[in-house]
């Protein structure tokens, strides 16, 4: 398990700077939004240092670290520009190769990996990177030959079997590919890439239950496997489980605050949830109307009670909700026995006498109690001091103002955590309210 405690300087300033340390740091960065923000702050600090530092050796070292940090942050183009000045450094050459790989300049990526390998001696991991680059370039056959050769001394390596499976996948050898994906998971049950590929395979095959199983396993790995979380969210959405879908997209945004795709899908899921809520509300309204329109004659009442109600012009249950006990008892020949009968049939349907008179109709309206609750101030609901302060810093004073916000808008505020959102949701729920779930969720993030 990767620790959430992050000390960037401890990793970046430790000599020698190794690939292993950098990948470990990347894993830590993407465990939380807070860690990602630490990385962003470190990048700002390095830029400022480079522009003001007089010592050229310090500037050079900080520039290399900046290039690495930019690559970790997903800013490939800037990382490429910085790392291009350090081709002779074995670590820089390797990550420059990763930049070329992401830029789809595969020949240059292989040149950088080869350079890094020569500087570093015999290196299995770099050989595997070269094979991966050959596969990505559209030559899975050459990649497969290289992987099979590497397997003689590294058959127990999970990444090797993953690349092997992916090559077979690209060549259309699906049964053999599944064998190697499963072999990967035998070696490393938490191998995120293999879990994702298997989930994706079952997703395409229409085997939703298996796809969900593997996606759910994949998203439990550290760091968060973004594509798996997004695909899991889409599967949930396809099954009309909008709440879980929204949760998946939020999870991506908490680790990758600038993920444009997650933001886009979040909008769709929230719109779907809102639409389902509206549909449910219409169905509920129709059901309530149906109940209220039930004729009194459908129920077994005494002749005395039926006659009294008919003379009073009370024909349906709706009519009964519009009269009070006092009005019924004041009518000639209508006594306690008849009243008990009436109360019993109303109770069966969740209604009561005088309900409409009290303006507390069974039919849900847009005003009434909710309006009274929304007029309350933030200070009148039970929230932690930290959460209340965060809300007040946004200039939100009333429950109405708070309920008009989406979870996305709240989480975009500095220092506003998911724990605060959960706290707010719990309190609003007790009032019969919830945060807005429409399409107004703000501007798109730029992609990482």
TrEMBL record:
TPR repeats lie at residues 90-123, 158-191, 192-225, 226-259. Gene3D superfamilies: 5' to 3' exonuclease, C-terminal subdomain, Tetratricopeptide repeat domain. SMART domains: TPR. Keywords: Coiled coil, Repeat, TPR repeat. Residues 29-56 form a coiled coil. Residues 285-347, 371-429 form the RNA polymerase alpha subunit C-terminal domain. InterPro entries: CellSynth/LPSAsmb/PSIAsmb, RNAP_asu_C, TPR-like_helical_dom_sf, TPR_rpt. PROSITE patterns: TPR, TPR_REGION. GO terms for molecular function: DNA binding; DNA-directed RNA polymerase activity. GO terms for biological process: DNA-templated transcription. This is Putative RNA polymerase alpha subunit. It comes from Candidatus Scalindua brodae.
